[in-house]
Design a protein that fits this description.
alpha+beta; two-stranded antiparallel sheet; Deoxyribonuclease I, Chain A; 43% helix
């Protein structure tokens, strides 16, 4: 499945590149679906080309055994947005709908029917709300950490500690199969926005069926009103998230994370020997080595002499339950620092 766009004033070279891509996709011996705005002036009902570029395009589709399935205008009176498939029976309920946002092109909607293999998921997640945390604490208190960690390197100590924690978690927190949820609903998609979208679709269908100028005039403002309502609700939702970040920072950063288009990982890195380092532990060691190299090396043989303080001494340090609670209440849960 692929999406293509051919600019209106494309030259012959761009046309040949597009034909090559289509031919390559069709040679793989699999079901092929290609859709997009091809900007081709073709009479698709009679398969008649209006020029040499269109004729070459039709020949390319015939060689790839691709059938063009859109038979209604998608921009004014022209069929520019196409759906190509070498198994046309798999394309169901193809409809040319209202304009997309502020675009002068119509939405082309269809269902792709295919057999989905049922695969049982083995992924399990922890049920943290059902964990036996009292049992975990009692189990961890039985461990002599000093005895189990003595004589080991930092990495060995970490692996020992991590192994114990993971084993305890496995024994005291139950698991369940991960539920794969369906379509993700936009959080700002309110009832009012949904009604605007439905009204826009209804007005388009009425105008398309009747062909009357007054119906098209009634539809004209619907996309603009819907776009304005969506923008307003999105701004309101983002404003509520931002204003409540002190009390609910998780929702704010979850929304920001979902808006990111790309997730960039660290690495690979190049070590001193010029080799690429790709493993997580090796990358961490290279970063640690670099950070340690910029530290200031203190001259331990020439330490300053500390003079005894001549001020008043205080032998009384009072730590009360009330003072500790006061400090805890002042912690900012959304930040790592006070």
């Amino acid at each position: 499945m692929g999406v293509m766009y051919r600019p209106p004033n494309s030259g012959q070279d761009q046309g040949h590149k597009m034909h090559h891509k289509i031919e390559s996709a069709c040679q793989k011996g699999k079901v092929t679906v290609i859709m997009g705005d091809f900007n081709m002036q073709v009479d698709w009902v009679n398969n008649a080309a209006s020029g040499p570029k269109e004729r070459e395009f039709i020949e390319c589709l015939q060689e790839g055994v691709l059938e063009q399935l859109v038979m209604e205008p998608t921009r004014e009176q022209a069929i520019l947005d196409l759906v190509l498939c070498n198994e046309p029976d798999l394309i169901k309920d193809l409809k040319v709908r209202e304009h997309f946002g502020g675009s002068d092109h119509n939405v082309v909607e269809f269902n792709l029917q295919f057999e989905r293999k049922k695969v049982e998921s083995d992924v399990k997640v922890l049920q943290l709300n059902k964990g036996n945390y009292r049992g975990m604490r009692e189990e961890l208190m039985k461990i002599d950490w000093e005895q189990s960690l003595v004589g080991k390197t930092v990495e060995q100590q970490w692996q020992e500690f991590l192994g114990v924690i993971e084993d305890t978690v496995q024994r005291f927190i139950p698991k369940k199969r991960k539920v794969i949820r369906g379509e993700i609903r936009q959080p700002w998609l309110t009832k009012e926005v949904g009604e605007c979208i439905k009204a826009k679709e209804k007005a388009y269908n009425v105008a398309k069926s009747s062909g009357k100028s007054e119906d098209w005039e009634g539809y004209k403002n619907k996309p603009r009103i819907t776009k304005r309502e969506i923008r307003k609700e999105r701004i309101n939702y983002e404003g509520r998230l931002a204003s409540n970040i002190r009390n609910d920072s998780k929702s704010f950063f979850k929304y920001i994370k979902n808006k990111r288009e790309a997730k960039v990982d660290i690495g690979p890195l190049q070590n001193d020997a010029g080799n690429l380092v790709m493993g997580d532990q090796e990358i961490a060691e290279e970063l640690n080595k670099y950070f340690a190299s910029v530290f200031t090396v203190e001259n331990m043989s020439n330490m300053p002499t500390i003079q005894e303080s001549q001020g008043a001494e205080s032998n009384m340090v009072a730590i009360t339950k009330e003072k500790v609670l006061e400090k805890l209440r002042g912690l900012k849960i959304g930040k790592s620092l006070l």
